[in-house]
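Section 5.1 Outputs to date
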Amino acid sequence: MKVCSKFGLLLLMLTLLLVGSAFGEIVPNNEAVEDLKVENVPHDDGGGLMLSWKPLPKEKRIIEYRIYRGYTPDSLFYIGKIPVDAKMGVAADTMKYVDQGWTFFVDATSRAKLKHEKGQKKGTKGAEILFRTVPRDMKIYGPMMDHYRMLIVIPDKEYMYHTKMREFTDIDTTEDGTVDTTSTILAGMKLEQVKYILTKLTVGKEYYYAIQALNMNRSASPLSEIASGQTTDDPPEKLKEFYAVAVADKEQMQFEWSLPVFTDDQKQFNIYLYDEFDDQHLIYTRPDAYPYTPQTNAIVPYDSIAARFEAFNSANMKWYRFNMGEQDRQDQETLAKDEPIPAESIKSADLPKPPVYFTVKDQPNDKGDQLQVFFDYPYYGLSKLTYNDAFTKLTVNYFISENSMYEVTRLILTINDTTKTEKTEYVLDNKLDFKVNWDYTQPMEIKGTFVCKQKGQEPLPENFAITHTFTFDPVLQLVVIDYPPNEQMKEFQDYYFQVYKINHTSDVYRYAKELSFREREYVDKVSYETVQFRGRPRFSLEEKRLYFSTYLSIVNYKDQYPFYTQAIYLDQLKQQNEEIRAEITKLQKDLETETDPEKIEETENRIALYTDFIEDKPEIVKEANQLKSDKERMKLLYKTHCTNIRSFKYYIRKTDGQGHFIDTPVYIAPNGEQYILPKQNWFNNDEIITLTAVLVFAALVFFMIKAARKGKRLYIRPIAGIQEIDNAIGRATEMGRPILFVPGLSGISDVATLAGLAILSKVAKKAAEYDTRILVPCRDFIVLPIAQEIVKEAHYEAGRPDTYDKNSVFFITQAQFAFVAGVNGIMIREKTATNFYMGMFWAESLLMTETGSATGAIQIAGTDAVNQLPFFITTCDYTLIGEELYAASAYLSKQPLILGTLKAQDYMKLIIVISVVIGTILSTVHLTFFMNWFPTK
């Protein structure tokens, strides 16, 4: 006992020594973070503050810095952390944290009550003012919402069908004593119905911050000094690039600019013309596409300029200069250039050629959330060219960019335009070899032409080809491609493609995707809408509800109402219409007594506007408003809303980024519709071959099982390892030694483990019949009870329940090599005569089987782990390789169900092998139709 105690003490001291040498001494965490500063983030929407502080020395073994924020200095809530490597520490002199954008505030899973941050020493400032995250208690988070900008994310179905209408009345008294009453109807929801609530800092509001560091012992440092900062809504950042181009024969100006980094606060882009007197004239404005990426270019016809600037004279473009301003929602504006720039004058012939055959269609075989956008002829490029050491062979590695209209079936490559060096690639494996019969030191050309699958489309032009240049660089000892590029490649490389789209509820295009000159297809993800976004809600502590605005966007109607909306309640709609009719009646009475012509015109315009609002509605809205139920009405409106926000029209702009661009027309479908809606597909036609294979396999399984049940003998190839099981068990019986069975080291979810347990059932039964002891060590605690039950059931089937020993199936450990050590100890102590290894094994396989071999035991192994098979084959007497492990249960049991399935698998493999052989033969003679039947992905 004393020896064990001394050994344990020695082990503890060694462990402490190792820990100390690895991490060093942990210095007490008694220093607060210093030099905490809070600064405004420039060029944003006033919703960002940047924190900086001096990190603690690495001897403190800090693992994270926690950040706390509040709108008062006496209540700070945890908002985030910065993890740190405890051993390395922080190399920089300053750490930074940016509190910007929408951050999580609260949801239904937040903690129920307000709790102080744990780990704070009593009597310290941290114990008094630090709190964990905001709780879901409305008494706490409700008043806090007044100090932040709010964004509420609400599941669609909850907002549409499970809200409670409530009317709020606000009474305001003006300076002259007049009482103004405003009535608002809002939709009420409980926090449980909301997905989550986000916050952003409010412009001009002061916020307070503190930092606390945690070391490896989870000990918190003293709280830093509280620092405060105030957000500022700065003017937008200056754009890096702006170009102006005058296309004389098209009588239009083309402008292009770079995207700003911060777009949250962008309201619109304004383009200005400066005349010969340096007077500024606004000639174009476009709203921003927030939250989506806005367009980066614009076309302004001369007529449009003249409508805003009457003195405009296109014949004297040299008089004018141009600039562009970014304007934010606070109407602050920043000009792109310090000085206006003159326009570059060109003709339309100087513009790029537009992409041809621009098409948009529904992506087949999907769930209705993708659209295909494709255009132009196919393209091939060279990724690598390599000569062999003797310069007798050139290996060309290529790639092809195609689309759904022009699917390439063959690529014909010709070097230096001679038929002697022409090769046709029938199987497009992106690699082709040429025998070199030219001077490799000279610049070369390689021309590619295409043969495309015929789908009724316009054929490729006869002279369409793509030519690359290449030369061997003797200094670098490699082939240089397209340097310098030829005229064709220079035109390709100078331009890229921009995909723009707009849906039925918007009035501005969004920048969907930038495609390189190599790309010919873009799959646009059109997600299903699942949530609604609302701003700061009202809240009721009595009802414990949040109340939101009650409008749903429907459609861009007649370009007059870009976001035509409807109230979600019928009662609200009726009240709204009654108020408008009352206002119309009042205006009509005022009109009877009014004599001022200007006021008469103004009043008539207001009457016309109100009348249009009531009477001029989309047909679907008129139909919905005739329904008597809120639920039925919202079903119709919501369906229309979802259809319109997911229906897009597209065009493609080819540009060099400097104002030289050209557009395709907006795509119009064959049915005349511009807005394309993705549709769900019931079946994935690309998987028909897979369905066919499944049906064939199912039929084979059915007929094989049926044949086995009728008594037909199904031949199974003899497996030596299985045939020797009886002999191995008999050997252990004769020697009077136990049997060791290891069911792998993996869990029950592994197929190899299941196969090993099936073999265990047969081995245990045979061992019970011979009254031979069997030992089953387990690594997985779930496999353990299953193995116990299998061995127990085997003894009952053998008629020897009295010989079952529950301790013969036991758990060792989950640690891999500790388990191996335990198994090796059992082999040596128990002197096992036969060892079975059936299941999944890793690096420990050789350690076990080498020990078993040294003890003189007969060993039979089986696994599907390819990396371990060489070790089993070397050290074991018999090895079940791969699928032989799975077939073993059928071989041992002779059950019709298992036999039939096994034979069906064999026949299916035969069909696959035959298919591969047929495909290889046909591809060799350049017939690829059979190969193309099968999916490529």
